[in-house]
Design brief:
There is one protein chain. The chain is mostly helical and 291 residues long. The protein contains 9 helices and no strands.
Length: 291
Amino acid sequence: MADDSTGSELVREAAAQLYAGDPAGFIGRRGDLAARARASGDAAAAKQIAALRKPTRAAWVVNLLVRADPGAVSELAALGDDLRAAGRALDGRKLRELSQARRELITALTTRALAGAGLRDAPAAVQEEVTATLSAAVADPRVAADLAAGALARPVERPGFGFGPAGNEGREEAPPEIPRTRPSGPARAGRERAGRERAERVQAERERAERERRRELIAAAEQAVGRAGQAADAAQAAERARADAVHQLEQRLDDAQDKLAEAKRQARAAATALRDARRALDRLGRAGPPA
């Protein structure tokens, strides 16, 4: 029986192979690695390996990035620390600078991750999930720690840092200006009301955009179904046409075979008649002229 340290090492090595490989072969590789651990006498490691979850395409892309460049997670985590510090200090200028740096870093890392996975033309959904996961690592140190292991099974999405409307983290909108003095009375109430109204407008716009996106997705799906139906009808029509053509060819072949058989019969009859005529002629020749 292998000791605990050996079992942990087996699981780490298996995770490294599985999460660095293409998800298409994950299940088969996981079964092989679990079987090897079991054959080595480490049933506990085999059980842990068998429980490793297959990553989505986006999670796999992030895992590849982290394994190829472990420093990327450190950059994300450090930027997150700086943003939280600026938020606590109510430093609006610093927040804007760091937010711009965050957008640039996440864009660069997303591009690098997709390129490293050979997915420069990845679907928009995969790109969005990679970006959201990297943004979540900036927003939440726990997510950054999870990313550092390079064994994500699902993409991650987290809300923002607490400044500005909730859920804006990872979006292009810069955080609002932080006042250096705190107004009181009507002025403060007015600012709070304006903030709530702004948050409501942002939320309403986000919901409107989501509804529009869903309508577009539904319309695209309906069009795809329509095209698939047309393609199926065309395929069936083509199949029927080929079947008819084959039937006609078979009928023509049968007719041709019948005609060939008749021609052969007539040829045999003609050959027989010719042979009989020649024999008759020979007999006449041997008998000589009539007396």
